[in-house]
HAT C-terminal dimerisation domain-containing protein
Amino acid sequence: MPMISLQDETEMESFWAEMATRKHKVTGAKEFERLAAVAKLVLVLPHANADAERVFSVVGLNKTKRRNSLALDGTLSSIMTIKMANLEPCFKWETPSDIIKATSQDNHADRS
């Protein structure tokens, strides 16, 4: 069996896919089917809980005693989505030129 080298972690998925489909030359049975299945289960586990902790931290900063009526499936969810996406603040957003052009054309058409 030739050795398979992994250049980087992006090849990990293809490596285990190869191991899952590799067959014995004589019997034709899959050689590493169970090992590959276990590896796939292990590889989907998160390395750490930093992402979950970050979410709880942001929730704690936004759902305070003064803002305790924020519903998780409403306003709080929207706040969380915006904050976790690391978007620029709204006052830094610039309207794309094609939208400005389309809007100005519509305004001229409405005046006629």
